[in-house]
Amino acid sequence: MSGIAEGKVVVVTGAGGGIGRDIALAYAKAGAKVVVNDIGVSLTGEGGGDGPAKMVADEIIKAGGQAVPNLDSVASYEGANNIIQTAIDSFGKIDIIVNNAGNLRDRLFHKMSEEEWRQVIDVHLHGSFFVSRAAAPYFREQESGAFVHMTSTSGLIGNFGQSNYSAAKMGIVGLSKSIALDMARYNVRSNCIAPFAWSRMTSSIPAETPEEKARVAKLQKMEANKIAPMAVYLGSDAASEVTGQIFGVRANEIMLFSQPRPIRSVHMSTGWTPELIAEVAAPALKGSFFKLERSPEVINWDPI
């Protein structure tokens, strides 16, 4: 195998199935040596074992690539360090991190428990930090490296019943930008992908009303393997000048997302009071307020 990631060593978390599996396979096909990380549990936490990670690693090896499984949890600092150590022990270095591991504990905000909040933040946000932080000293020393993080339009735009997931995914955007800024001097890059794909994650979306069924039908047309090319590109040297960005991948469509910037301002030379804000500032800014919308209402065209 040879390709755009020839000679690279990559860690792909949550790679036992869905988007992560396809990314791991694509990296191997592109010439990378792969650490296939997955704890082997369902989205809701049931099960566990080496099955998924080992199966993907074996699939890569059978096809002529190099891979090792890893079962550590990204949700602990120790587990994250063990994941990176697996790469060092097996292949002698680490070049690319793909923070893909995820879970869901969907619940309307006013009904969400502390446990449901913490479990999602722990895997998505803490997991992305822990694994990235474990790799950072190696990237700094070798003065190269790439992080690819998974965000979501649930955070970038909004969705029902996912305050934990949305908060984590927006937190990952801020984490990625901070990594890009802090580690640019070491030629280390960090970018995000917002994937649109039918996978283990999206299979839990409710499909009871006609509108929900129609939305799920559209999602089912979006294959998980469509995400992998962007993930491989961002980890490769071909993307050496790409950092701090947020991309969306939706079937055969690639999007570049905007990032928060001031869009309008008002000034009062004598300073503002609450009353003046209500009388002058708020009406002046109101025309530029963003509507309260969900992801499917903003990205409302059919996948290509």
Automatic annotation (TrEMBL):
InterPro entries (UniProt xref): KR_dom (IPR057326), NAD(P)-bd_dom_sf (IPR036291), Peroxisomal_Beta-Oxidation (IPR051687), Sc_DH/Rdtase_CS (IPR020904), SDR_fam (IPR002347)
Pfam family, one: adh_short
Superkingdom: Bacteria
Positions of the Ketoreductase domain: 8-213
The family this protein is said to belong to: Belongs to the short-chain dehydrogenases/reductases (SDR) family.
Record protein name field: Short-chain dehydrogenase
